[in-house]
From TrEMBL:
Enzyme Commission number(s): 4.-.-.-
Described purpose of this protein according to its UniProt entry: Catalyzes the conversion of 7,8-dihydroneopterin triphosphate (H2NTP) to 6-carboxy-5,6,7,8-tetrahydropterin (CPH4) and acetaldehyde.
Pathway: Purine metabolism; 7-cyano-7-deazaguanine biosynthesis
Pfam family, one: PTPS
Cofactor: Zn(2+)
Family: Belongs to the PTPS family. QueD subfamily.
Protein name: 6-carboxy-5,6,7,8-tetrahydropterin synthase
Transmembrane segments: none
Positions with a binding annotation for Zn(2+): 13, 26, 28
Cofactor binding description: Binds 1 zinc ion per subunit.
Molecular-function annotations in GO: 6-carboxytetrahydropterin synthase activity; metal ion binding
Entry's Gene Ontology BP terms: tRNA queuosine(34) biosynthetic process
Catalytic activity: 7,8-dihydroneopterin 3'-triphosphate + H2O = 6-carboxy-5,6,7,8-tetrahydropterin + triphosphate + acetaldehyde + 2 H(+)
Length: 142
């Protein structure tokens, strides 16, 4: 059985070295779909649930929304993006360092890993960068 909960967050990023407009610093209102897969809980307060939506919301808020929302998300291995982040941090502005280029594809992998580490049985992470463009990650076999 699978359940899905949808979230949104606003972030800025850039893709340094991109051969188009994404090389520029810009922002998205990201839509995030988290799908959890598990058997149904038998008995107790959560009887008949894969996972309580309220619990899922709390974990996603803590692990993803809080660090990502209104942050400059950047590739810590990229010098130019790191220099911009250092300036923002100097001004006490919010940044989030990732270990990879901040494409929608890479961000799904990052989000999947964070939720897995938080103990969620993540089935898939789908991240919409615009209303018509999304990436989906379903684990290491992808
Ligand atoms: Zn973008």
């Amino acid at each position: 059985m699978k359940i899905t909960k949808i979230f949104t967050f606003d972030s800025s990023h850039m893709l340094d070295g991109h051969d188009g407009k994404c090389q520029n610093l810009h922002g998205h209102t990201y839509k995030l779909e988290i799908t959890v897969s598990d058997g149904l809980i038998q008995g107790g307060a959560k009887d008949g649930m894969v996972m309580d939506f309220t619990d899922l919301k709390a974990i996603v808020k803590q692990q993803i929304i809080d660090p990502f929302d209104h942050a400059f998300i950047y590739d810590g291995s990229n010098e130019r993006e790191s220099r911009i982040a250092a300036l923002l941090e100097e001004w006490n502005m919010k940044t989030l360092r990732l270990q990879r280029r901040t494409t929608a594809e890479n961000m799904t992998v990052e989000i999947y890993g964070r939720l897995q580490n938080a103990g969620i049985n993540v089935c898939s992470v789908k991240l919409w960068e615009t209303p018509t463009s999304c990436a989906e990650y379903e684990g290491e076999n992808e």
